[in-house]
Task: structure prediction
Amino acid sequence: MLSFLTFQRLRTVAASLALVFTSATLVLAPWQTAMAQVRTLPDFTDLVDLVGPSVVNIRTMEKVVPRTAPGGSGDEEMMEFFRRFGLPMPNIPRQAPRSNRPAPEEEQPKGVGSGFIFSSDGLIMTNAHVVEGADEVLVTLTDKREFKAKILGADKRSDVALVKIEATGLPAIKVGDVGRLRVGEWVMAIGSPFGLENTVTAGIVSAKQRDTGDFLPFIQTDVAINPGNSGGPLINMRGEVVGINSQIYSRSGGFMGISFAIPMDEAVRVVEQLRTQGRVSRGRIGVQIGPVSKEVAESLGLPKAQGALVTGVEAGAPADKAGVEAGDIIVKFDGKAIEKSGDLPRIVGGIKPGTKSTLTVFRRGGMKDLNVTVAEIEADKVAAKPEAPEPKPKGVAGQQYGLVVSELTDAQKKELKIKAGVRIDAATEAAARAGLREGDVILAVGNTEVASVRELEAALGKHDKKKALNVLFRRGEWTQFAVIKATN
Result:
């Protein structure tokens, strides 16, 4: 028999073991739950039933003139082939005399894509490139009904188009909140790749805010997208459309694991303008911009590489009137922070022309707020190169930067409407790599204004050759900014 003391020791050991097992269970429980969630793959069947009827197939037609009409030149080309190679002439029946009347146009298939019902009264969203150049657009619903569609508007910059069919009571999609979309989240696409209608593919969100265009930060996914999927919806697990499938990255023309979708919030803003006015108006302020690299930030004294570097200002444009200068770094516009250069055109483009806004620039070591009235975007202007008369005798300055310069004549100053500067007669090596060229007029280097060759030489002499040199210059009507990288 066990003694009382031995019995007590065994009870203590048993209690300790029970505590250990209980603790282990508590520790393993969350891990086991997580593993169970990992093993459970999503089921898309309900989503297909919910959103599938809202997805449409889009076929486009174009009118073309047949290359060879009856009695045309086809037989003549064949005879020429036989004559050229010395082959026996075939016995071809004689055709009727060729008519001078133009051959009638024929409708031929142009392309195939996808779309989805935006509203129950027949509004359908798709890509602009799906309907571009089409003479006729045919929309087929999942119930096999086919309609001729009218193009209400298409915006090439965002690649969004809106078409209308004469039908009511259609199953419209539900727009999702793109802000809630997370990287790694499951998403699904429905479309017509290679004309195969109602094809369902799925994957995850690979990245958000992917910069591949001027005005749109794309959603990147690994959902299988192929030619014909364009214009179809990208759907989250709540059955909401969060994007329009638009582009793929491919070296072969087929799917390679990288697809891009237009965020639905951006697309809806475009569609509202297409519906009301048939076109999209965007804001502009008239600046050329570039990224703020670490070298640029250091050369200007900016603590962090952020914002949009103003490399050129259009004369008379809103930015010029507001006092924006080449070399400024725009760090905020209309109250929104500019983290990278691509943020600026999207923010400005989304502002209604005529709106008065405020922008913040970093200039010569400090921040400065400027008031600007946004204008409407227009075609880029090409700055004309001034035809300058013969300059005064040349002087050589900054040879280590590849610059040969000379003084400006009074006539040149009057033509360019500037008071001072130094003309570039030749730009080689580092200066050429920075984008400078003959005929440009240097206004400042290293944040120091220069009015003569002598002042330029003095400023260059004080500059640390191991650091990048920022240059403010004039080219035609544009004041621009460049950075000459330090040579090793």
About this structure: The first helix runs from residue 4 to 39. The radius of gyration is 33 Å.
